[in-house]
């Protein structure tokens, strides 16, 4: 138990201790923080006096050096923070280094190296297949053989709270005309993101059992998607501009050490995966329960448990051809959707491509996102002793496309 | 004319002055260099005494600070280097700072931020269509409306000379079996890469006319491709592991200032591009003549002139949805193929998917790359006064897939 006044039911109780990067109005220089209850421990300041041998990891105010430091250091830092917050003898030194969470601004906590997005929910992939290829097999023929994925744009990964500007782009209208303008089908994708700490060696695949040697922690991710831009561009090279105008991540990275009680068996697979993906006997599924709210109203509860491909399999596949990992690599699960309609992690599925709009309290309906809409995705996983390990939230509000000359017609460009 | 003994016909004459990063056996700390003839000027050392107001740009030994500095600084540095190498009064100071190129090791010259690969040669795209979709329209329906592209893996971009390890991966055999093992169809793609210097503002597209405000220079790129892995994985999310085991770039970045004589009109387009891509009246095509050699034997001469989509259009498209540019972003043309069989920039096309193997001097044949094969891509563009602006070369040799337990069968994994 911590000496702070944090209820056992708090998602950011002592069982969680996620890491982030923050500033305050009085302290504009970024610092590393650890969330505890409704407060934030200034780890940069605390380490300077209480953990001097590791203080250098936190001096720059972001998580990059900690991520690179590896499992023994991760364990030592977590043990130290746990001790500071639980043993009363540390209270006098630590309490002055605690800031109310309401007073901090949270930053993108680490430098994103490469960003990969997978497609690992069978329910999501099958829903997409049923919507776009009715009458044929809902899953692509390769889907059950490998965790399909693609590289996204690392430079458009932003922290929760960053406004998302509705992208302009090319789309093909129902009558076959190709036009350029603000996306008319702006969507979300509720996903789980894995943050790589320790690099791997080029040419050396990372086996399933080596997941925890490389991955530092987990956060939530909203892969904002412009369905109209995506639909017109994605054959044959995959998603590009339809998904590279903003990808939001939650500001708190929950370390794997907080998730010991959250691993579950993955669903049965048929066919049996090839040896490098065969996790028979392992429990590599993450039981992360998510909630999606639109304008404050809950619209979906996507379940991380039940994902067909696990994060360990995603990592093994990603590195199977020899691609090395770098500190700050992020890979995401793909949209998390469960078998029930209320468990779908995208509006595409929740509204069945707009055919069945959601009705919000007050009577407004939504097929896709309107300007001004705010989406919040939160999540938690089982912790020790019946507690929940919180992931906080990833939040974003849609801003209208700015007017630029690019969206004017040829007449305006050539007077 | 430079006071060095450099013939006017030298591709690295005074008209070129490309930038790179190098070490020497005596000087293992990276320095910025400028190629001149068969030598390299140590710009880090030269700037310290001769250009002190800009010396900080070169102190770290890589190009990142120079890239970020922007066009006025790029012009000032190039003018200074040109003056040092042409005016005899500088000879005494500069000559001691010149190292024979044969004595330097060239490094990846800048930090790659995001890497995007386009698909902008109509001849290449049509050849691919004819090979894989005979009887149907060779180009996808979106191809003439936008420069198609996808994000590649920035962490696997390597400098020329780095060995390329044949990747293992999943493929589907001719009889439909899915197996994992070393790629059996390893290929090259001869491409032109554009290196972004100046960031752009999120949400603010970069117009065609702003290309030179952001792009610093150009290099050669070999997008090594495992066709069997790619063919099995790429529907519907595009190329992933089939192209993320190694992407080689040439070590010398040729600044745009050296390419004033190299721009040509692009081919006629039908349909006329949308306004943000409409370059009527502009001459944004790059007349970069490439040569591909396999085992020392020339196998193709891909022409950069004639690419359907120009680098200015690629940049306008990439940013059209608001994605910001970062210093070190690289985007590549896609395979450069011309209309003639000898102008095709991939083995896929040169051997028509292996059906028409190349015969090398000595009688060996090649459908795809064998272990030990070395591929060298070189290039040059028109310079002032009938000179050629050289791009040097991008070189790589194929190493065999290392043996790992991942490639053993299930019997070995479960004794």
From TrEMBL, chains A, B:
Q: Where is the Fumarylacetoacetase-like C-terminal domain?
A: 116-395
Write down the required cofactor(s). Answer: Mg(2+); Ca(2+)
Pfam families per the UniProt record, alphabetical: FAA_hydrolase, FAA_hydrolase_N
Keywords noted in UniProt: Calcium, Hydrolase, Magnesium, Metal-binding, Phenylalanine catabolism, Tyrosine catabolism
Q: Where is the Fumarylacetoacetase N-terminal domain?
A: 15-109
In which pathway is this protein known to take part? Answer: Amino-acid degradation; L-phenylalanine degradation; acetoacetate and fumarate from L-phenylalanine: step 6/6
Q: What is this protein called?
A: fumarylacetoacetase
What organism is listed for this UniProt entry?
Answer: Pseudonocardia aurantiaca
């Amino acid at each position: 138990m911590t000496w702070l006044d944090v209820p056992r039911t708090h998602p950011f109780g002592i069982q969680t201790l996620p890491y982030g990067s923050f500033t305050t109005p009085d302290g504009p220089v970024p610092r590393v923080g650890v969330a505890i209850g409704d407060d934030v421990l200034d780890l940069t300041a605390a380490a300077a006096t209480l953990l001097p041998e590791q203080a250098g990891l936190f001096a720059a105010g972001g998580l990059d050096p900690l991520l690179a430091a590896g499992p023994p250091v991760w364990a030592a830092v977590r043990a130290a923070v746990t001790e500071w917050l639980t043993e009363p003898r540390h209270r006098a030194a630590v309490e002055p280094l605690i800031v109310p969470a309401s007073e901090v601004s949270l930053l993108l906590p680490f430098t994103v190296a490469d960003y990969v997005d997978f497609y690992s929910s069978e329910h999501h992939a099958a829903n997409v297949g049923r919507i776009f290829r009715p009458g044929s097999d809902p899953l692509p023929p390769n889907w059950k053989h490998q965790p399909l994925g693609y590289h996204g744009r690392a430079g458009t990964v932003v922290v929760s709270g960053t406004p998302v500007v509705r992208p302009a782009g090319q789309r093909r209208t129902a009558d076959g005309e190709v036009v350029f303008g603000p996306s008319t089908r702006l969507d979300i994708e509720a996903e789980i993101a894995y943050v790589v700490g320790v690099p791997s060696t080029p040419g050396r695949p990372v086996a399933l059992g080596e997941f925890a040697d490389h991955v530092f922690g987990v956060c939530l991710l909203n892969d904002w998607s412009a369905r109209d831009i995506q639909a017109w561009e994605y054959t044959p090279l995959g998603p590009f501009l339809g998904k590279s105008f903003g990808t939001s991540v939650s500001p708190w990275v929950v370390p794997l050490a907080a998730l010991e009680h959250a691993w579950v068996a993955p669903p049965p697979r048929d066919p049996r995966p090839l040896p490098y993906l065969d996790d028979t006997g392992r429990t590599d599924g993450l039981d992360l329960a998510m909630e999606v709210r639109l304008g404050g109203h809950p619209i979906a509860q996507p379940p991380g448990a039940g994902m067909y491909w696990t994060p360990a399999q995603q990592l093994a596949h990603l590195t199977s051809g020899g691609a090395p990992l770098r500190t700050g690599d992020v890979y995401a699960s793909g949209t998390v959707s469960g078998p029930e309609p209320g468990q779908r992690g995208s509006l595409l599925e929740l509204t069945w491509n707009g055919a069945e709009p959601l009705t919000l309290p007050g009577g407004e309906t939504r097929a896709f996102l309107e300007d001004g809409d705010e989406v919040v995705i939160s999540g938690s996983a089982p912790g020790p002793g019946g507690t929940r390990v919180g992931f906080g939230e990833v939040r974003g509000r849609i801003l209208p496309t700015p007017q630029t000359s690019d969206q004017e017609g040829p007449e305006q460009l050539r007077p």
